[in-house]
């Protein structure tokens, strides 16, 4: 579904990604693991077309999207959930859900089907219960659920999630796991940044370890669980 080849990225003179190659297959949940500053956020931003100083190839659903801007990638089915979740605090849950652009009647019809409000509420009943609540009154887990649902409303088939569990309690982290499984069951593919390697191994299929802008290892769940202690030490957690 997604194939990245030789991706490099810079901030001015400083190189943040070095020749990154990886792939994500349809229906998978794949994580990016690495210390602060390893390049994880930069990688997701490059995939979405949000980072101007990048070279290399990004292919999505067989198409080279490397030269496309973020809105065109979004139309193809890429969705980015930033680490601040991008929820509008003063708007209600429903108003937040109604914000994503709705494809015009003369749309090219080449993109995936955006989720209707009903589909969002069926998949995440908690959002229906909270639909009149302002963003400020939501828990961290509910905000994350809303952020994911908003991107699904754009018709995303591959979600690029920047550390959805960051700063959340263990109980809420488990809830996020449930949400990601729901998303996967709905046929959506996920590439996420995740520092909690134990959680990562329970929710995802494969893992890439990033260090100093490179993919240094690719691991399956058994390898992550067998090396959990070592990985936690490496990550400084
Ligand atoms: N706006 C920026 N200007 C200059 N350098 C930046 C900028 N954003 C990130 N960097 C640098 O690029 C490198 C990769 O940062 P990035 O945020 O992608 O890492 P990360 O793995 O996501 O870490 P974190 O979890 O701390 O966000 C780091 O060396 C960082 O200092």
Question: Can you walk through the features of this model?
Answer:
The protein has 237 residues and is of the alpha/beta class. The protein has one domain: Rossmann fold (3-Layer(aba) Sandwich), CATH 3.40.50.300. 35% of the residues lie in helices and 26% in strands. The chain is built from 10 helices and 10 strands. A 6-stranded mixed β-sheet has the order 6-7-8-3-9-10, sandwiched between helices. Strand 4 and strand 5 form a beta hairpin. Helix 6 (140-152) runs parallel beside helix 7 (170-185). The two termini are 32 Å apart. The model has no long low-confidence stretch (mean pLDDT 90). Bound molecules: adenosine-5'-triphosphate (ATP). Residues 11, 14, 16, 34, 36-42 line the site of adenosine-5'-triphosphate. One of its GO terms (molecular function) is ATP binding. Belongs to the ABC transporter superfamily. Keywords: Amino-acid transport, ATP-binding, Nucleotide-binding, Transport. Residues 2-237 form the ABC transporter domain. This is ABC transporter ATP-binding protein.
| End-to-end CA span | 32 Å
Q: How many distinct domains?
A: 1
The third-level CATH topology is Rossmann fold
Could you name the CATH homologous superfamily? P-loop containing nucleotide triphosphate hydrolases
Gyration radius, rounded: 17 Å
The top level CATH class name: Alpha Beta
Sum up the overall morphology in one term: globular
* Major sheet characteristics: 6 strands, mixed
Mean pLDDT figure:
90
Tell me the series of helices and strands, N- to C-terminal: EEEHEEHEHHHHEHEHEEHH
* Strand arrangement across the biggest beta sheet: 6-7-8-3-9-10
**CATH architecture title:** 3-Layer(aba) Sandwich
Structural class: alpha/beta
Helix content: 25-40%
Low-confidence stretches: none
Please work out how many helical segments DSSP would assign.
Answer: 10
């Amino acid at each position: 579904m997604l194939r990245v080849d030789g991706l490099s990225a810079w901030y001015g003179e400083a190189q943040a990604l070095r020749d990154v190659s990886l792939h994500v297959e349809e229906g998978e949940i794949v994580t990016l693991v690495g210390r602060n500053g390893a390049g994880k956020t930069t990688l997701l931003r490059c995939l979405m077309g949000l980072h101007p100083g990048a070279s290399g190839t990004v292919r999505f659903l067989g198409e080279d999207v490397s030269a496309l801007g973020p809105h065109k990638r979004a139309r193809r089915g890429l969705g980015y959930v930033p680490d601040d979740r991008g929820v509008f605090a003063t708007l209600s849950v429903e108003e937040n859900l109604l914000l994503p652009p709705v494809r015009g009647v003369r749309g090219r019809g080449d993109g995936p089907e955006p989720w209707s409000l009903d589909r969002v509420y069926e998949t995440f009943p908690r959002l229906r219960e909270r639909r009149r609540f302002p963003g400020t009154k939501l828990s961290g887990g509910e905000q994350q659920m809303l952020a994911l649902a908003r991107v699904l409303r754009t018709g995303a088939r591959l979600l690029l999630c920047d550390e959805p569990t960051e700063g959340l309690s263990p109980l809420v982290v488990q809830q996020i796991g449930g949400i990601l499984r729901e998303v996967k069951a709905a046929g959506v593919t996920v590439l996420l940044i995740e520092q909690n390697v134990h959680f990562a191994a329970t929710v995802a299929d494969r893992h890439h370890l990033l260090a100093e802008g490179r993919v240094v290892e690719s691991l399956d769940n058994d390898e992550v669980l067998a090396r959990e202690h070592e990985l936690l030490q490496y990550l400084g957690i």
